[in-house]
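hey
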C-alpha cells in the first residue's frame, strides 16, 4: 500500500531501506496552502465507503494508514484506488480546474 500511494502522497518516516512496519503516515500538510485539510481527505474517503483513518496523530496534518490482515487484496486495492482518485481531485483544485467547495 505504501508503495502504491508514494508519489501521489508524501510518506513520512520510512526506514533506511524505504520500508514501513504495519502502518504508515501520509503527510497532507502540503495541501493546506490550497485550503485542503486532512479532514477533507478523510471525509472524501468516507464517500468511497471507507472508515476515516486516524488524523493528525502522531503527525499533525497526517493520515495514518493502518491496514488489517482481515482485509483481502481486492479491498486493499480498492482503498488505494480511492486514495489515488482523491489525490487527482486535490490536483484539480490546486490547478484551478475544480472549485474547492
Amino acid at each position: 500500500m505504501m508503495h502504491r500511494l508514494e508519489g501521489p502522497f508524501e510518506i513520512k518516516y520510512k526506514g533506511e531501506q524505504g520500508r514501513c512496519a504495519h502502518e504508515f503516515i501520509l503527510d497532507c500538510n502540503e495541501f493546506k496552502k490550497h485550503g485542503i485539510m486532512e479532514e477533507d481527505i478523510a471525509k472524501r474517503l468516507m464517500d468511497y465507503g471507507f472508515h476515516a483513518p486516524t488524523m493528525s496523530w502522531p503527525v499533525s496534518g497526517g493520515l495514518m494508514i493502518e491496514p488489517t490482515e482481515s482485509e483481502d487484496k481486492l479491498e486493499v486495492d480498492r482503498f488505494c484506488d480511492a486514495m489515488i482518485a482523491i489525490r487527482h481531485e486535490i490536483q484539480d483544485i490546486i490547478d484551478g480546474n475544480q472549485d474547492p467547495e
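The helical segments are 2-5, 38-47, 73-94. The first strand starts at residue 10 and ends at 12.
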